[in-house]
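@channel sequence for tomorrow's demo:
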Amino acid sequence: MLLSLVLITVYFREPAGGGLHSIQGTGATVLRPFEVASNRVAAPFQDAYGWFAGLIHAKSENARLRDQIDKLRAEVIQNTNAARENDDLRAQLHYIGLARFPQDYNPINTDVISRSPSEFQQQVGIAAGSSSGIRVNDPVATADGLVGKISSVAPHSATVTLLTDPNLNVSALDVQTQAVGLVGHGEGQGTLTLDHVQKSQVLHEGDTIVTQGWKVKGLSSIYPYGIPIGTVSGATNSEVDLYWNSQVSPFVNFESLQSVIVLVPKTRTGR
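structure tokens (generated this afternoon):
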């Protein structure tokens, strides 16, 4: 250690051309080839280390970006659903405020929470039941038109049988010609038919079909008058048929129901 201190002191004090400086230059010249060789030998290992380090960093960054994308995608879906629900609610509130809304009924706005797994059972579940005053056979609609009726009720949920169900028929009226018939399940998915329209009556393509809302000797239809159903998309009248052969294009998109309005009669007691 003492020798090292002496050599360092002499080295810094002597001129640039001194003995120690000459020895240093000679040593550097001699060791230069070894330094170059060692650098060349070490370079591939340094490159490999840098490649692996970069790969690990890239994978980590990729995972972080994927997580960020998944979160953003979830937020987009959530915001889209919220906007759709908001639009549905605004449309329902607008419909409830219209003069054509059945005045003898109280509206119960509720969400669709389940769908039937079978195409032969056209039903949906809703998030309101008997605790909200809902009963079996209460009509169900949206701002677009008639959806169906309540077919079963629990305290906080209920089942709606859709107008597209083969077992459901609704008395209907042609607004333009006053022709009457029964709207029911059509041959294609999401389609309807208008049956039992007498040949003496008149139907035109494009006519608007609504619920008839009949009353006979103290009995009345469970559906109030004037709930929109759809438009006549086709109507034929042949000599061999007893009735018109007609199809109706529904106003309601039964495949994308998010929320509905249950119509509860104001005269009902025991709520």
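heads up for whoever presents: The first helix runs from residue 2 to 13.
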